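Record 1 of the preview.
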Amino acid sequence: MIKRSLNQIAAMLGLNSEQPSFADTMIMGVAIDSRKIEPGNLFVPFKGENSDGHQYVEDCFQKGAAAALWQSDVPNPPAHLPIIIVDDCLTALQELARKYRNELSVKVVGITGSNGKTTTKDMTAALLSTTYKVQKTEGNYNNHIGLPLTVLGLSEDTEIAVLEMGMSGRGEIEFLTKLACPDAVVITNIGESHLLDLGSREGIAEAKLEILQGLKNNGLAVLHGDEPLLMERIHEYKGNVRLKTFGRNHTNDLYPIDIKQLETGNSFKINGSDHCFELPVLGTHNILNALAAILIAKYFSVPYEKVNEGLENIKLTNMRMELVEGRHGEKIINDAYNASPTSMMAAVELISNLQGYTRKILVLGDMLELGPQEEQYHLQIGEGLNPEKINLLFTFGPLGEHIARGAHASLGKNNVYSYTDKQELICELEQHVNDKTLVLVKASRGMKLEEVVQSLQ
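->
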């Protein structure tokens, strides 16, 4: 984490310290939540609609904070405490992260995409960690606040940082990538998430390709080569970039062969190598995420022998294809962190193909931010279910009702349950599970379907 004196922090922000008696006060790390202050932290207060972090500044000092920022339009700054007055606390946080990143010798990998970016981040960090000291984005710290905090949390001796970059609209990825200045970037795919804000998959592709704007000259861009929206635009890109592609098609630089589905993951080989890789993550779609990670690892000279070691030690962020057991012995795939039509169809394909279960149940909730066609996207999920492979469907939420309606024809009305009350759903679901049951739970983050998993456990 950042370790600088108050005087150095002020200089990084282009300011002069107005409190010479505190100039040598040392700051270790940055916090924006007064409840999570650690000794030596620099506290950055934000003004929100319902609360103002400035009212907690003195409390943070009592908890061990070494210094704090203070926004100039907030009255009565505490003159007896080591503070730095700035025009805007968020802008100051971002600028501090930018300056700190430029002072480090760390290499940066930036990762974005409609689906799979968090999983790809976790895989990439695992592979690189076999050879380098690596830090990665934790949790969902992938936006205009989270990414600066991640950068400021980097140790000075970190060799590679793997940074996830999320967005909800145009210009956000460009801002993040120009702050992080990546040496290599990955775009996992182009899906339907953010159609509400961006209007079309073409708009999403253009927004994701903003990640190239911060890529260092002659840096590496790893793209999903089966996605024409990416390939058309990358060939129009005027910057100096090295391109590598991954995908299922044999036109890509890296593609999988000899795929075998295992009980808790997959094994596969890749073109040009006899190595057999074992991926302890469910879903053949995750093989593509692994291919992107392998291309990054190869760029940083990680040998294939080390790649397998890295794959064995992957630590995925929670609620992403997480296999857990319920109290009746049922197996549950907890994929409740997020959902889009592409990722939901991939998850349904996974559970459809897994063997060894007498009953397979889907618990699917609303997919959010899909724009004007959201009802149709949900309907199509239900219509596409195979009654020979899926036994029961439970849906949750108003949009989930359209999944249920689509499934009436495919599964039959007697095998479809639709709810807007989560507890009612859980009570009925519990009547249908035993030790030969496999349950998939998936929806957008806002639906909080992990509560279903927790109840089953």
